[in-house]
Write a structure and sequence with these properties.
Blueprint: E1 2-6, H1 11-22, E2 26-31, E3 42-46, H2 49-54, E4 67-70, H3 79-100, E5 103-107, H4 119-132, E6 138-143, E7 146-147, H5 152-160, E8 165-168, E9 174-175, E10 178-179, H6 180-192, E11 199-203, E12 209-210, H7 211-221, E13 228-231, H8 234-247, H9 254-260, H10 269-275, H11 282-285, H12 292-320, H13 324-333, H14 339-358, H15 362-386, H16 400-414
Parallel strand pairs: 1-2, 1-4, 2-3, 4-5, 5-6, 6-11, 7-10, 8-13
Antiparallel strand pairs: 9-12
Length: 418
C-alpha cells in the first residue's frame, strides 16, 4: 500500500514510520523542514500545516496514494497556534485527500469532543468533526496517554519515576495508557481490516489507572518499589498552572491541570470489534523503556544544575559580602595584599558570577561548564603549590573541588548538543 504519513518526525510519526516500513508499505513521509535522514523505501517531502492553512498550493498530494495518515500535532498553550495547526491546517490536508478520493486515518486524542474547555482537545475535535462530514472513507483514532521512548509526556513520567515521594496534581483521575507500539500495531490492523463505514474509534489500554498507578508500573519496570504520592494543594497547583500558562510550559499549564483532574476513559473493546486488535496491558510492554539509568539522569540533572548555579552565584555573593575580609586574609596568606588582593577578589567574584549566569542559557551552557572546569583546575593547582595546608582542612574545602569537577564533567557530557 502507498501511504502518505504526515508528521513523520514527531513521537507518533517516528514509530509509525518504522512500523509501516517494516510491514512492507511504500511510505512518503513529510516533515516541516528539510529531512536529511534516510530509510530504505521512504521518500521525504516538506509539508507545513500552518502554511497549508493559508495556502492550498503549498503542498500537492502525491499521485497514487492509497492512504493518508495524519500523525501531526502540537503541544502548546497558544490557542491560535493550536487552531492553525490542528484544525485549519488539518482541514486543508483533508480537503486534498477528498479531491483525490484518498482514505484518511487521523490520529486524534481521547477526550476530543468531550472537553471543549481544553484548547488542545477542542482543536482536535474540530478537525475530527470536519473529517467525518467530508464524505471520504475515514477513521479517527483517539488514543489515550501514549508512553514510550521519545515522547514528551513519557520523558516527564520517566523523570518523576525515580523519586520515592512524588507530588501529583491529582491522585484519583483515571486514564487508560498504552505503549506507542500498540498504536503502531493498531494502525497496521486497521490497514488490514478497514471498516466499511467512517467512524471514530478510541484506542485505550485495558486497565483504567490513576497516574500514581502508572508511575508505579514504570518504577517496577526499572526495579524500584512503589512510591508514595501526595496531592499538590489546590492553591499551589493553580498558581503553578497560571505561571506555566504565561511562560509557555508544556507540562504544567491551565489545560494540563484540567485534564489531570478528569477521568479520560473509553471502551477498550471498540477497536477490537472493528479490526480484531486488543491493546496489551501497559506493564507487559515496559521492556526496553524506561531505563533506570536514563530516568535517574533526567531526574537528577535539573537538581544538580540548580545546586551548581547556587554554588557559583553564592560564591560570588559571599566573596563580595560577608566573606570579603576572609578572602583578603587568604590572599595575604598567599603573599598578595593591597590593591592587587582587592582586584583579585573582585575579579574572582565577577568570574564566578558570570560562569554561574552562563549556566542559565542553553546556548552558553557547554562553554560555561568548560570554563568552570578550567577555573577549578587552576584554583586547585595554585592552592596545592601556594597554600598546601588547605588540603588538611577538616571540612575538605579544597578536596570538595574534585567532587565539583566530576559533577561539572557529568553535566558537560550529558548536556544536549542541540
Amino acid at each position: 500500500m502507498k501511504v502518505l504519513l504526515v508528521g513523520a518526525t514527531g513521537f507518533v510519526g517516528r514509530h509509525l514510520l518504522v512500523a509501516l516500513n517494516a510491514a512492507g508499505h511504500e511510505v512518503i513521509a513529510t516533515s516541516r523542514g528539510h529531512h536529511v535522514r534516510s530509510m530504505p523505501g521512504v521518500e521525504w517531502q516538506m509539508l507545513d500545516l500552518d502554511r497549508l492553512a493559508t495556502d492550498a498550493k503549498h503542498f500537492i498530494l502525491p499521485h497514487g496514494i492509497d492512504l493518508l495518515i495524519n500523525a501531526a500535532g502540537l503541544l502548546s498553550v497558544d490557542e491560535q497556534a493550536l487552531r492553525l495547526t490542528q484544525d485549519l491546517g488539518t482541514r486543508a490536508l483533508f480537503d486534498l485527500a477528498a479531491r483525490q478520493g484518498v482514505r484518511v486515518l487521523h490520529i486524534s486524542a481521547l477526550g476530543a469532543g468531550e472537553q471543549p474547555d481544553v484548547p488542545f482537545l477542542a482543536s482536535k475535535a474540530a478537525a475530527d468533526d470536519y473529517l467525518m462530514a467530508l464524505g471520504v472513507p475515514a477513521v479517527v483514532l483517539r488514543p489515550s496517554l501514549l508512553v514510550g521512548a521519545g515522547g514528551a509526556s513519557s520523558a516527564w513520567l520517566a523523570r518523576l519515576s525515580p523519586w520515592p515521594l512524588i507530588p501529583l496534581l491529582d491522585l484519583h483521575a483515571r486514564l487508560q495508557p498504552l505503549h506507542i507500539d500498540d498504536l503502531s500495531a493498531a494502525v497496521l490492523a486497521l490497514l488490514r481490516h478497514w471498516p466499511a463505514q467512517s467512524q471514530i474509534l478510541p484506542l485505550v489500554g485495558p486497565q483504567a489507572l490513576t497516574l500514581a498507578q502508572v508511575l508505579d508500573q514504570l518504577r517496577a519496570a526499572q526495579g524500584w518499589a512503589p512510591a508514595r504520592y501526595v496531592s499538590v494543594p489546590g492553591i499551589l497547583s493553580r498558581a503553578a498552572a497560571w505561571l506555566g500558562e504565561r511562560l509557555g510550559w508544556r507540562a504544567l499549564n491551565q489545560q494540563s491541570l484540567r485534564m489531570a483532574r478528569r477521568d479520560n476513559v473509553a471502551d477498550p473493546e471498540a477497536l477490537a470489534a472493528v479490526c480484531g486488535y486488543r491493546v496489551a496491558p501497559l506493564s507487559t510492554r515496559l521492556v526496553d523503556w524506561p531505563n533506570a539509568g536514563q530516568s535517574a539522569q533526567w531526574a537528577l540533572r535539573p537538581l544538580l544544575l540548580a545546586v551548581m548555579l547556587l554554588i557559583w552565584l553564592g560564591t560570588a555573593a559571599v566573596c563580595l559580602g560577608p566573606g570579603y575580609d576572609w578572602s583578603l586574609r587568604i590572599m595575604a596568606e598567599a603573599g598578595v595584599s593591597g590593591t592587587p588582593a582587592v582586584f583579585a577578589v573582585y575579579a574572582g567574584a565577577l568570574c564566578d558570577g558570570l560562569l554561574g549566569l552562563g549556566m542559565l542559557f542553553k546556548r552558553w551552557r557547554r562553554r560555561a561548564f568548560q570554563a568552570q572546569l578550567l577555573l577549578m583546575s587552576g584554583y586547585t593547582l595554585i592552592i596545592s603549590f601556594v597554600l598546601p595546608h588547605y588540603w588538611l582542612d577538616p571540612y575538605a574545602a579544597v578536596a570538595k573541588n574534585l567532587v565539583l569537577m566530576v559533577a561539572t564533567l557529568w553535566l558537560l557530557w550529558t548536556e544536549p548538543r542541540r
